[in-house]
Amino acid sequence: MGAAALPASAQTWQDTALSASAVSPATFGGASLKAANGTGGKVISLTGTNVTWSLHGTPPSGVSLSGGTISNTGTTSSTTSIVADATDGTGNAEALVIPVALTSGSIQLGTGNVTRVSLSALADSNVLGTVKFSATSSVSTNAVNFAESNLPTGLSSGNPVLTFVGGTAAPGTYAGVVVTATDADGAVLHGTFTLTVTANSVTGYGDEVNRFGNGFDAFRQHQFPGAIIAGWTATQSDPATHFLVTNGTHQGALRFEYAPKGTGTGLCVSDPGGGWSSDPLRDGLILTSCNTGPWLQFIPQSNGSLKNVATGLFVNPNGTGAQLRGGTSPTPWGGSFYRFIDFSSLPG
Prior knowledge:
By secondary structure, the protein is mainly β. The chain has strands spanning about 15-20, 25, 30-35, 45-50, 50-55, 65, 70, 80-85, 95-105, 105-110, 115, 120-125, 130-135, 145-150, 160, 170-185, 190-210, 215-220, 230-235, 245, 255-260, 265-270, 285-290, 300, 305-310, 315, 325, 340.
């Protein structure tokens, strides 16, 4: 297979795994957080060292914060709770959940205790080539969300799992990646870690095409695990026939990632060998999540046929529009003999 230059729209790398060092959590830099009734009996004063205060969520109508003073210009009376977030100079935050009593032009502490909310135990774990984050809120019922920043180009933030699927980051080790945990009351805790990316080089963008012009085709442009791979006319205008080619882990093997308009989907052509219950054929070709398994790897033979590493079967067509399937030998009429055609050389 000749490796032509990739177009600007096509990726250069296909990520296959991520791993992370242990997270180093930051420490909240504020202290002495308090809420008390202010002078004059109509406001609440927030105090604390090395913090900036903000109201979390949507406060009741008329309630606002200026500096460390919460006031109320509303005219109705009610009791409720509001949340004030105290953020230190590095973006870490703790929260106060404050019971309040509202009357016309006034806000005072209500019945009950002020609850201080913080995050702890920010950590990660490496799970099947992905990185999963966890943290604990001091309020056990609060959900915690995660976001990552300073990622290498080609990776997207995940919550709570940072995944390689669909990633195009160059392989390497990246220090200083940041994970941010945020709980439902706005408590925030940052942590840093080192991320290692494993990736395969993309060697081509186009399609495997037989002598009749039919190539691999994601049937009806379906983009999900289990989608059928059919034989169909390969063209530049039909994104269902666009694939990225990477080297497999077995000698001489290739993998084909569905990539409409040059953008990888994280789904690769596979002969599951009967291991996919929804596959209409035992050895019918389908899309599955890209991985290093042998079912996703095909070795080009000297005659142009493609042999699956796991099953030992050859990729055979059964007419235009039909699902491609594995066979014990290539078809006698020549439809099983493929050659890779770069996107730039496909018909329009």
